[in-house]
Write a structure and sequence with these properties.
The chain has 456 residues and is α/β, with parallel strands linked by helices. The protein is built from 15 helices and 15 strands. A hairpin with a 2-residue loop joins β13 and β14.
């Protein structure tokens, strides 16, 4: 019963920060669209009762997205609560009682990763993880290749792969999962989307803020683990994959895994790590921490389409802007206009905060035909309330049993294989000024042909 819809959502970590900022607003949105009509059972160790959970949820909606009275009334009627220690068998006995006649619950683990294995084992031994149940696991999925394999082993002892949903909410962004439609339904991009025409690819994920009081978490994670091995790899596989034979989830995910399998493991010479000035004074950060808050990577993909096309990823905190942008720089055009400063064509795709697709071209200046005039052909729109938020989409799909936007076991392990060597290499950490584009060593060591494109 792989695609049987869930008849209950069990929500571990219901009193946590993720629930407060993201999950409750997403659940209300799902109710408004008619996607959520099943019980939502919160589980946490807070010493709370159901009314306190409802008060927390209502406060979450008022501060993050707005309270819709009618939708809130419906969501409130769906909420249940089990309070207890995740290591206590009685917690799972209470959960089993609360599930009642439900036969296909989805267990969503919005909890610290170190608790994943414990909760999954307890779900299995308590009978809460029956043959129709599924588990939805938040990132980070492991901290390296060995821990990811260990976690996969634990999960697969209780759930088969078709019932494991590893969330990367970045794939819930409309422009990210719609990238395949843009690529494979239009002849224009696909005609030059290969090594014959594209000189290099770069992706920048910039945040203009620091660790925002999450120093203790971030110091154990760092930029490569936090956003590059997952979010940026997901973007990259959507950019590089071949057209799937069919649009079913496994055909799409097969093509993504092929991209990672063709990717070389990173070496220490292919990474620059940086740390913004003042990071060591953040609460929760170790005194002599060498955790990176910025990283730049150079990747190689030995596939027919992309061989010898260098690929660059860059991400960091306290950079000048908050923006995620892709730049595909095309090879120089052969031209007879030798006296003109002809610039390389490019495709620029902005993922956030707004969605923009740009083609960089050359034209003649209208008032001076002896000069060229670089122009951009632009299509752009700002997300509105009609679009599903990322968490709303991935939770809806998980409850429906659609795994397309979720990472498969082999994908996760291939991604860790690629970054594992540099995570363990203890490469130098270079300081950089707040609201700069990272350490100066980046331009010297990891730099695309033509330089980095800095979003504005």
């Amino acid at each position: 019963m792989k695609n049987q819809p869930s008849d209950a959502l069990v929500f571990f970590g219901a009193t946590g920060d993720l629930a407060y900022k993201k999950i409750f607003p997403s659940l209300q949105a799902m109710v408004k669209r008619g996607y959520l009509t099943i019980p939502v059972i919160g589980v946490a160790k807070a010493g709370w009762n159901l009314e306190q959970l409802k008060a927390r949820a209502k406060d979450s909606l008022e501060k993050h997205g707005g309270l819709d009275p009618e939708a809130w009334q419906k969501l409130s009627s769906l909420l249940r609560y089990v309070d207890g220690d995740y290591n206590d068998d009685s917690t799972y006995q209470a959960l089993r009682k609360e599930l009642g006649s439900c036969v296909s619950p989805a267990h969503y683990l919005a909890i610290p990763p170190l608790l994943f294995g414990l909760v999954v084992q307890k779900l299995s031994t308590s009978g809460c993880a029956n043959e129709n149940a599924r588990v939805v696991v938040e990132k980070p999925f492991g901290t390296d290749l060995a821990s990811a394999k260990k976690l996969n082993t634990i999960l697969l002892q209780a759930f088969d792969e078709s019932r494991i949903f590893r969330i990367d909410h970045y794939l819930g962004k409309p422009v990210v999962h719609n990238m395949l439609f843009f690529r494979f339904s239009n002849m224009i991009p696909e005609s030059f989307w290969n090594r014959e025409f594209i000189e290099s690819i770069q992706i920048t994920m910039a945040e203009d803020f620091g660790v925002q009081g999450r120093g203790s978490f971030y110091d154990k994670t760092g930029t490569i683990r936090d956003v590059m091995e997952n979010h940026l790899f997901q973007l990259l596989t959507n950019l590089l994959m071949e057209s799937p034979a069919r649009l079913d989830s496994e055909s799409i995910r097969d093509e993504k895994v092929k991209v990672l399998k063709a990717m070389h493991e990173l070496s220490p010479t292919q990474v620059v790590r940086g740390q913004f000035q003042g990071y060591l004074q953040e609460p929760g950060v170790a005194e002599n921490s060498t955790t990176e808050t910025f990283a730049a990577l150079q990747l190689k993909v030995d596939s027919w389409r992309w061989k010898d096309v260098p690929i660059y990823l860059r991400a960091g905190k306290n950079l000048p802007v908050e923006c995620t942008e892709i730049l595909l720089r095309l090879k120089p055009a052969p031209t007879m206009y030798t006296g003109y400063p002809i610039k390389q064509n490019y495709i620029r795709m902005r993922i956030s905060p707004e969605v923009t697709i740009v083609m960089g071209m050359n034209a003649i200046k209208p008032d001076n035909e002896t000069q060229s005039n670089p122009v951009e052909l632009v299509t752009s729109h700002k997300p509105d309330e009609k679009e599903m938020a990322p968490y709303e989409r991935v939770l809806r799909d998980a409850l429906a049993g659609d795994p397309t936007l979720f990472a498969r076991e082999d994908y996760v392990e291939e991604a860790w294989r690629i970054v594992d060597p540099v995570i363990k290499a203890n490469t130098p950490i270079y300081p950089y000024e707040i609201h700069s584009w990272g350490p100066s060593h980046t331009e010297e060591m990891i730099c695309p042909p033509g330089g980095w494109h800095n979003p504005i």
